[in-house]
Fold this protein.
Amino acid sequence: MLNELPRIPLALLPTPMEEAARLGAALGGPRIFFKRDDLTGAGLGGNKVRKLEFVIGQAIAEGADTLVVCGGYQSNLARVAAALGNRLGLQVELVLGGIPGERRDMTGNLLLDHLYGATIHYIETDPRWDFGSALDAVMAKLQAAGRRPFLMPLGGSTPEGMAGYVLATHEMMAQCRDAGITPTRLYVAVGSGGTYSGLLLGALNFAAPYKIIGVSVSRLADYLREKIPVEAANAASALGLQKVPAAHDLHIEDRYVGAGYGELTAGCRAAIELVARTEGVLLDPVYSGKAMACLIDHVRRAVIKPDETVLFLHTGGWPALFAYSASDLGLESPTASVLQNKGAVPKVRQAP
Ligand SMILES: *Cc1c(COP(=O)(O)O)cnc(C)c1O
């Protein structure tokens, strides 16, 4: 059934799998491979592109002409959907939630949402993903105007969206074979949990060698341990997959969230800086930075042994970096020098 789902090829696949050798050396041992899903391409990439191949595929198959997408002010899903909507000729309505008083500067992803020309609706709500009746109201208004809107759930995490990561498992296993590695663990950030569920279903059904460590960026582990198996089982039946996860298949960490979703932690800042400076690869402050903080902490606490090989799924999100200041990221005292330009060549005058 997986291969019969409506799908629009939007992602640049396969994304690279590359060894982060200098990061591994800096941490004193394990081999670390990045699966570069920050490079899925469309709309500046990230994990949402694999999901949207199927979610937008379904929307179009159902005759939709408008996508209604919800998320936080700096939502990566919103940014990618806004870009892809333009590419496919679909109207995009964004419903962006933030806790009361949260800043919504037109920076980072939000700048791009405006540039792409999406229609934006803000809602102040706590928790920020509790949209209440706002989504129904936007849907009703669009329907009354004669549009055919498709409502995308948070994170694009429908069973079809998860299919993107079930299939990504095939891609990763082939790349592991080519690289001659047998990773013991795969680290990935968990927001809505759709990426994790897809990866877990893929790993179980295609006998991947690794266990999957999901690093929560918002919810408590107990909540995710209840929610994910239900949603994964639901997706398995929709996608025709035999094996469904049991409680012992889930490995969820919630100690890297910090004060909450989008709130930077010292570990996240340090992870972003270390990966930028060893690999030249950008992580983001909301998701991949926290997932990497977990991986680094696991190396330091010898949860990962020096002779292990681990995968890190880079889910993208780095456009959100540009919504942060240097001091947010702990870069307030940059070491830079100012040079004198003695003997500079005089400016050439414009011809009159
Ligand atoms: C959405 C997102 C995630 C989380 O994916 P879920 O499927 O919602 O758990 C991780 N990283 C980045 C950069 C994201 O944008």
